[in-house]
Design a protein that fits this description.
The structure is a homodimer. By secondary structure, the first copy, chain A, is an alpha/beta fold. Chain A contains six helices and 28 strands. In chain A, helix 3 (about 210-220) runs parallel beside helix 6. At the A-B interface, helix 2, strand 15, helix 3, helix 6 and strand 22 of A face strand 10, helix 2, strand 15, helix 3 and helix 6 of B.
């Protein structure tokens, strides 16, 4: 007998039952890699930079030639010419000499520092006055200062950001090892559902969950595959789930919020695979099912769109991260609760909010609607959680809002 | 003479000079709309729900028939059958009668409340015992409870989330008015640059900025168009900028970190359009240029990738939001600084960090590297700002980290 689990127990179960990083590897071109999850550590294979570089516009010098100089008593150095960008310095600097060097230019041999141009004066007679002493290494980055061969630059499991793309580009990595995107099958069930392009007849509602979940899956790095609306017929649903379990990496069943319909979903999962969890002690979202068919996660979501969204945001997203081997966690922002929210039902309660800044303060305005379809979805900016042992949170208290989406 | 501006002055200038929401409108299918910016308010055009619905599994009743009932003295009601999902209720409930109704079912005429099945007993003789009184309206959402025709559901300028897609689906909006994505031209300049597929020769470095900025632009909702590496030649660069200003909505010039090269960029922008700003008092990122050519923003970025990233994250992203008419703001998360960072140069300083949770506490580990290419990019999770009038932030203090990317 499966008992209702807390959200934390459900997270542990996901960690236990589905293999971390089990999605196959593939290589993608660098320009398609942003947002993808690395399947292998990235090690540097060369020195970056590959030569000693100036970090300023100025004069390459031997630092000892500048010791003791000042505005009033500059060191006078002989000017040996200019280092050109993108070329080997090609000069061997003698003591008492200097060479103009632009930002990023290669330090000539014989030099060990750069003086910023602001502290120099060109006398236009082939000599330069240095007005400020520099220590060896000043205004320089040395070969390998940034990375040396063998250093781990990015770790397996990281979701690549634009800056990471920059780092990969710097190392000349043009083909990037990543996890394949999981294909997520989305099945909506319910006789009351019509396609969103149709006008609902009496007693009917549009299938909100399919397009909403497809958008969410894409945002979380998956490839949504929708299977349309399946009538409340156990054998039809079984066929569809069986097909989806062959074609997809993850299956989402949405709808069937009544007890009888949930039982049907459970029976189907049990007959094709195994049931791991039936019910999560949270509000909204209690009638959630997690199972697996051929090691693939199958999640039965509540029929109500706002509840289906919460359960997906928390658990489906976690499953997608787990399969990709990605351990990134949610980031929550502090906001002041603008209205008291009560909670006294012994379950963790997730409250949708819209975020609004007034007079420089970020407020979380809780969205309350009975079981409204649209007002509990449209314009929401995030959510916070009231733990099960808490009776509510008062207006004016700070809550940590996880931005949804 | 253009003076150096503070970051806040630069933001004001962007607001002033570039028209809010000037990108053309287009309609996209609902399934491509997530992440896009609405170009018009979305109003409800019908009642949602379109009929009175039950929010639970139970019995539709006339509330007055339940008054005074209890566990020990239930109200006995005659059972008139079952409301089927997705159909008109079709029943006219008489006083003293009830009908089974599933979650989401349409309330039959004559009923004004639903009793949860948990508080009922089926006597299997055509009667049902009701053990708990309900008030009129209990466990119901009325027609239009969620939205009524004419209500603004989503506002122009909003970036659509998966939940918004759900709300649009609920209203049957399958074609969504959004702003066109801006095409952002990316030009890298510098004789020292090689394509990332090439092995840099002596004194050369790979063009990191083009792929990094392209990834960032795509993440911020733009369409990157890269123009490759342009040699340090004023007339070549002028031609390229002129071409890009015809083909793109925004132009990014990256590289040219030396004073001379910046002067070239300024001259080109002035000759083709006008220069608005030359220098932002921030670190990194001081040598930033903002101008416009035919009303299109042109931004001259520092050559150093980490600096180019910061300037883009702050100002290019802001410009893209401005053109799309989107006012969303950054969300920052609190984190404990793990090392003291000093700042005493009178400029706002932006510090890259990687975020790490230890013992439940989120730490911001500042990334310090001279002008390292890779270590200042790879693996960074966000940044915080030390204001210009602050001499630094001590280890253990809480900083607000804006997640980059």
């Amino acid at each position: 007998m499966l008992t209702v689990k807390t959200p934390d127990e459900a997270f542990s179960l996901i960690k236990q039952e589905f293999t971390h990083g089990c999605l196959p590897k593939e290589y993608v071109p660098l320009k398609e890699a942003c947002g993808r999850v690395l399947s292998a550590d990235i090690l540097a294979d060369s020195y970056v930079p590959d030569f000693d570089r100036s970090t300023v516009d100025g004069y390459a010098v031997s630092a000892s030639d500048t010791f003791g100089c000042s505005d009033s008593i500059p060191s006078i150095l002989r000017m040996d010419g200019e280092i050109l960008m993108g070329t080997d310095a090609g000069i061997l600097l003698q003591p008492g000499h200097c060479a103009y060097i632009p930002t990023g230019g290669a330090l000539p041999r014989g030099a060990d520092a750069v003086v910023m141009i602001e502290y120099t004066e060109d006398y236009h007679d082939g000599t330069i006055g240095i007005q400020k002493p520099v220590a060896p290494g000043s205004n320089l980055i040395y070969r390998g200062d940034d990375v040396c061969p063998g250093k781990t630059v990015l770790k397996r499991g990281r979701r690549l950001t634009p800056q990471d793309i920059g780092a990969l580009a710097a190392m000349g990595i043009v083909s990037v090892p990543v996890r394949k995107k999981p294909v997520v099958g989305i099945l909506s069930t319910g006789d009351e559902l019509t396609d969103i392009t149709e006008t609902p007849g009496p007693g009917q509602v549009r299938d909100v969950n399919s397009p909403m979940l497809a958008a969410a899956v894409a945002q979380w790095g998956g490839i949504p595959r929708t299977y349309g609306i399946i009538r409340d017929d156990e054998s039809l649903l079984r066929q569809a789930v069986s097909l989806a379990s062959r074609e997809c990496d993850v299956i989402l069943l949405s709808g069937g919020s009544s007890v009888g319909e949930k039982d049907v979903s459970c029976r189907i999962i049990q007959s094709l695979g195994s049931l791991l969890l039936h019910g999560i002690a949270m509000k909204p979202g209690k009638p959630t099912i997690i199972g697996k068919i051929s090691e693939k996660p199958v999640i039965g979501l509540p029929g109500h769109p706002a509840a289906a969204f919460f359960v997906s945001r928390l658990f489906v997203r976690k499953i997608l991260l787990q399969l990709a081997g990605c351990d990134e966690e949610d980031r929550a922002v502090p906001a002041v609760l603008s209205q008291t929210v009560e909670s006294n039902h012994g379950r963790a309660q997730y409250v949708s909010v819209f975020l609004e800044r007034r007079d420089g303060i970020l407020y979380a305005n809780p969205i309350r609607s009975k079981s409204g379809l649209i007002t509990s979805l449209a314009g929401t900016g995030g959510y916070f959680c009231i733990p099960r042992d808490c009776e509510g949170i008062s207006r004016g208290e700070t809550v940590m809002v996880t931005c949804s989406g």
